Amino acid sequence: MSEKFDVVVIGAGPAGYVAAIKAAQLGMSTACVEQWLDDKGKIKLGGTCLNVGCIPSKALLDSSHKFHEAKADFGLHGISVGETAIDVPAMLARKEKIVGQLTGGVAGLFKHNGVTTLQGTGKLLAGTKVEVTDKDGNVQVVEASNVIIAAGSLPINIPPAPVDGDVIVDSTGALEFSEVPKRLGVIGAGVIGLELGSVWGRLGAEVVVLEALDDFLPMMDQQISKETAKIFKKQGMDIRLGARVTGTEVKGKEVVVSYSTADGEHSETFDKLIVAVGRRPRSEELFSSDSGITLDERGFIFVNDFCETEAPNVYAVGDVVRGPMLAHKGSEEGIMVAERIHGKPAQMNYDCIPSVIYTHPEVAAVGKTEQELKAEGVPYKAGTFPFVANGRALASNDSDGLVKLLAHEETDRILGCHIVGPSAADLVQQVVIAMEFGSSAEDLALTVFGHPTLSEAVHEAALAVDGGAIHIANRKKRK
In what order do the strands lie in the sheet with 264-270? Predict the structure, then answer.
């Protein structure tokens, strides 16, 4: 045994690096194992999120939105800029600079907090030992008092559309197009497909999204899903539901996609095709057969509410365990586990995890949908408020969408909030905080919100729960 640590973390993504930093802050000797290397053979921290996920995609989303604003909306403000053009290499360079700054920041935090970085592929052995195999095939076994598995996830591949990294790409390849494709196909109308499709669509690509399911964004509140679909259609995004891809054929620099719908067989030709049908846990070759770890039928590591596996002193967090594959969920699990190892009675409230789709406008949600409350037989009441009635949204020429707040019919406790509209990600966080403290709709209604702000839409939705909205006509009288 070359070294022994209080905590060894496998994976340096948002779940793993946060767990490692927190463990070190609590005074425990900590090591973090990461296999990812950059072009120079140097270890890359931050996982999928910082390197090829959340951060680079948001950089491109912001660039594409600014381009679209300059091209289509500046005239409304009386601003004349002449003919607009997009320099794709410059846009990608900006993205890479941001990624480098953040990943370098994680490395700096590791150094500051005394976290030891181990380059290589981590594998859990029996007895909380971790085998680390580096890029040259050298193997060392590290002993730990506790192990946290945070190995993350991988894009799902489908046989009808094998990724070639050129014409047919996954979410990583979609961040590296050297030019704007004229026609872009996207398989999957989920979070990743919609975000990446919207990036290239705003830059001028004709985007067709093929979704096998018959319902659009079925995990969201139906009223929000319908409003979102209407907005995207107005923006020119062609979303075809009930379209199951059956095959692809690459012909030179194009790909012919065959798909079936209820009315027969169809085909479309694209310059690029993005396969975005979801992600799967990175659980293969992650542990030995005698490690005590158990997987469920979908490949997720089985854990309890405190992220404890069935192996003593072994925890698993983030995308490799149950629950939504969200960076912030993984990070908070990492903190909870580090604190529990240290002896603190930490726990997570899984009912208050926000989810966001970073299109424009954004789509965000927390808590129960109206459909879930109906299915569970929970008495509820709803209040909605459209951004078209919000002064700040109108002043910003960004008034598509609405806020929807759900509260218990009898107790008035907030049960959920669903938003499509400007800054939805930030607005829903206000309700997350309220729900964390067990607030009622009336609590939000009685809170003073600044004017003019987008936040007033949340205030008005809370007022509307009991028919007391001020700036729209209420459907029912206030009691």
Answer: 244-251, 254-261, 264-270
- Report the half-sphere exposure of 21 (CA within 13 A, side-chain side): 21
**Contact assessment for residue 454 and residue 390, using Cβ atoms and an 8 Å cutoff:** yes
pLDDT for 3 equals 83
Tens of pLDDT, residues 274-287: 999 999 999 999 99
In degrees and rounded to multiples of 5, residue 399 shows phi and psi of: -115, 15
**Helix, strand, coil tally for the chain in percent (to 5):** 35, 25, 40
pTM above 0.90, yes or no: yes
Residue 2 pLDDT greater than 70, yes or no:
no
- Candidates 220, 274, 216, 213; CA nearest to 244 is 213
Which helix (H) or strand (E) segment holds residue 431: the answer is helix 424-436
Catalytic residue selected from 112, 266, 418, 451? 451
| Separation of alpha carbons 479 and 476, rounded Å | 9
For the record, the structure tokens of 7 come out as 């905590």
- DSSP letter at 242 equals T
Cα–Cα distance for residue pair 10/317, rounded to 1 Å: 10
DSSP-based three-state secondary structure for 281: strand
State which amino acid sits at residue 431: V
pLDDT digits (tens, 9 = 90+) for 460-476: 999 999 999 999 999 76
pLDDT greater than 90 at residue 457: yes
Look at residue 1 and tell me whether its pLDDT is greater than 50: no
Q: Is 353 exposed, middle or buried (0-12, 13-18, 19+ CB in 10 A)?
A: middle
Predicted confidence (pLDDT) per residue in 148-158, tens digit: 999 999 999 99
Our answer to whether residue 266 is catalytic in this structure is no
pLDDT of residue 477: 56
Query: DSSP label at 117?
Result: E
Q: Give the span between the Cα atoms of 90 and 86, in whole angstroms.
A: 9
Q: For residue 308, what pLDDT is reported?
A: 98
CB atoms within 10 A of CB 226: 14
Question: Cα(55)–Cα(49) distance, rounded to whole angstroms?
Answer: 6
Q: Which residues of 403-427 are buried (b: 16+ CB within 10 A; e: fewer)?
A: bbbbbbeeebebbbbbbbbbbbeeb
Which residue matches tokens 């107005």?
234
CA 373 to chain centroid, in Å, comes to 24
Whether the Cβ atoms of residue 273 and residue 254 lie closer than 8 Å to each other: no
